[in-house]
Amino acid sequence: MSRIGRLPVAVPAGVQVDVKGSNVHVKGPKGELSRTFSPLMGIALDNGQVIVTRGSNAPNQRALHGTTRAVINNMIFGVHKGFENVLEIDGVGYRAEMDGKTLVLYLGYSHPVRVEPPAGITFDVDLKARQVKVQGHDKEQVGQTASDVRKIRPPEPYKGKGLHYLGERIRRKAGKSGKAKV
In degrees, to the nearest 5, what angle opens at C-alpha 126 toward C-alphas 103 and 104? Predict the structure, then answer.
């Protein structure tokens, strides 16, 4: 059996989980999420825990087992505490600011780039640390939105200017003169 898939998912106080066949609906203080899973997986709510089982050891069911449990765990964690991705801004004159709910980025283009948050996503800008926080209750959507914002100006390999994830290591190249800055 899958080591991840056989672990039960604890449901914290303040979170409601509704399981109807292969449909799971989770509601908490941060929002609501609903998802339909494969009918090959057995999903049950028992004593404040969500348990995922599989019918056989077929390779496709073994592959779905751990994934289904992990996605349900992310749904419960997301509506309870939420997810956050942090992007750092590097570069002279590069900055970000908020205009209402809209993120405005000044990243060396001839114009500011405005990013409207999708439903369920909020942006937070820390001017001193030059960081943009992407927050929301859906892990998939938070990661995709952070990736889309990063694509506006990805870090370049010579000076490292651009947007990158917090703690991301940028592979650097030596310039024309061959001097490598560390």
Answer: 15
